[in-house]
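Appendix B. Chain record.
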Amino acid sequence: MPVKNRNHWDSDDFDLLWHYAATGVAAMSSGPTPLLEVRDLIVARGGVEVVRVPSFSLDEHETMALIGPNGSGKSSLLLSLACLLRPSSGQINFRGEPLNYDGGETAFRRKIAMVFQEPLLFDTTVYENVAAGLKIRKVSGHEVRKQVDVCMERFRITHLADRSARKLSGGEAQRTSLARAFATAPEVILLDEPFVALDPPTRQALTEDLEHVLRESGTAAIITTHDQAEALRLADRMAVMQNGTIIQSGAPSNVMSEPVNEFVATFVGMENVFSGTVREADNGLLSLTIGTQLMEILGEGSPGECVTFCIHPEHVVVTSNDPDRQTSARNVYSGTVVKIVPFGLYNKVYLDCGFMLVAAVTNQSLSELHLKAGGTVFALMKATSVHQFRKG
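Structure tokens predicted for this chain:
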């Protein structure tokens, strides 16, 4: 891991790196008196608009996961909240007070902290890195030792206190970066995909530790991530970004199960997105034509209308035995296995049921059902498992 040599820095370099690594950032959510609030924010980079967010807020003690593809504007939004990227227009409020860019941002930065993909450690020991923000604030030596000891213990790096930052593994370096950020007791912490470069076991362990520290400290946070499991574990609220704007925000379970459009559905793993023509509508139960089949779902529509809907692969049940109507599922299809793609602890089974359907099947079930390409199976779906996109 590259670590900059402090001997080559001047005072401006030191201040800038400190702002990046230990004092700068904010987060978001909703509530009557939000901790952090954005109004009509527009951010441009190189003359190109990259962020347009009409409103966005973060409550005290809230953790938000900000998800979206590369280039969706997540990092630019966070940098603007950290006062590291000045907005073209709009307003950022902290505890109801507008942020003043004519010198007022320094005081704001001292109330927030930021952790990046790269740890950005100083070329000194782990202890000195964790203590850096406190010493810049001229905290007493006794208090520095107390706070550093607490944060090193929280992130399980006490045994590394005297080790040079140059000799740390990627996971150890990021633990040090996190401990440094929390040492100053920030009111808000921003984490820009802090675990993306780590191997899965290290990433999982760090996620567990971060979850514990966030809950214990009550620090408000935003974390950008591509890992849905990580977002579901850490976040109280999830926001999805596309083309520089937030297109859906809410409880993680709601965003995952009730996406507002096809983009969100696909991004959160709903590979089964369909359009069908309503044949019959009866008190919220729709009978649709999809491919060569009929499907019943709960939704709204009128006969002849085309509606779009989706279903998680996890909600598609696959069996090798004909259920012969002995099931509560309204939708039962005979299908042919087109292909099976391993996906960690489960497999994506692609089926031709007169329309293409993807089911998530565990490794154990795959073995028990003797599934293989070309085999015939039955796919079952409940009407309540299908989510219809809102019209308009």
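Further analysis of this model is presented in Appendix C.
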